[in-house]
Specification:
By secondary structure, this protein is mainly alpha-helical. It is built from 14 helices and 2 strands. The longest helix is centred in the N-terminal third of the chain and has 31 residues.
């Protein structure tokens, strides 16, 4: 009886994950992190927050990644050899990259780049003519350069890495011991959390209550998961993850600007992105 119940729950969760993945693909929101890269590279004024933090974050990233591979790669590969067989080396490498990325995110966003990411998000919103929205969270100066117009912060939203997030991450880690499928599910679950987190600043500027935030996220759950998965995959890249942390922030701000300007479909994304996603299917 218990076995049947477990089987039913597993089938139900698999079905939910299937629908979530389908909604994420249809929304096209996974393209916003890619748009973020292009927009960041083509707007030099957005580079300043990153370049000002580049040296310490690069040093931190190299140090964490090197430490993790030297001391944790072989033990984890040995364990995975029993479950993943010939794929153990690849699975263990992906797991170590994920662990390194999480540690890097924890330390860099807590101690190094918090303010820089807020400046980047607000600067993109200003460049997309959503000044009224940004003025809810900081003073705005006169001028034409979006980054130079950023004044003193009135509200500072980005939360530090919480114990709950760490616990949830550790709970998901065992999924990586399941060959291929486990790692995919792990990334999707991480993306499901990372998507809404990318809009923390937007929700604060909108002065939304927690209930309003939850309602909005639930309405566009597939889109947020799609964005989160793409962002998580980019930030898994060792050392370059700091660059992608900024470009993902740019992508999140572009999405917020589209929402504000009502350039979105029922899936919660811009029509052009929805069309690109349709062509890619």
């Amino acid at each position: 009886m218990a076995t049947e119940r477990v089987k039913d729950v597993a089938i139900e969760e698999a079905d939910r994950l299937k629908h979530l993945t389908s909604d994420a693909a249809r929304s096209g929101a996974y393209l916003y992190p890619i748009r973020g890269i292009a927009y960041f590279l083509s707007h030099r004024s957005l580079w300043k927050p990153l370049t000002s933090k580049l040296a310490p974050t690069m040093t931190l990233g190299v140090g964490i990644t090197t430490f993790m591979f030297v001391f944790t790669y072989l033990p984890q590969m040995a364990v995975m050899a029993f479950t993943n067989g010939p794929l153990a080396a690849i699975s263990a490498a992906l797991l170590v990259l994920s662990e390194s990325s999480t540690l890097f995110t924890l330390l860099s966003k807590t101690f190094l780049v918090d303010d820089a990411l807020i400046d980047t998000f607000d600067g993109v919103l200003l460049s997309k003519n959503t000044t009224d929205l940004v003025s809810e969270g900081r003073q705005i100066k006169s001028g034409s350069d979006p980054m130079a117009k950023l004044g003193k912060l009135v509200k500072k939203p980005f939360m530090k890495f919480t114990p709950t997030a760490v616990i949830r991450y550790l709970m998901y880690l065992p999924l990586n011991f399941i060959p291929v499928v486990g790692t995919i599910i792990f990334v999707i679950l991480q993306g499901k959390r990372a998507g809404p987190t990318a809009h923390t600043r937007y929700f604060q500027l909108k002065r939304w209550s927690k209930d309003q935030q939850d309602k909005h996220v639930e309405q566009y759950r597939g889109a947020y998961t799609g964005f989160g998965v793409a962002a998580v995959l980019l930030e898994l890249v060792p050392i370059a993850s700091i660059f992608f942390a900024f470009t993902n922030t740019v992508g999140a701000a572009l999405w917020a600007a589209d929402i504000e300007q009502q350039h979105i479909t029922k899936e919660g994304t811009a029509p052009k992105l929805r069309e690109q996603a349709r062509k890619a299917e």
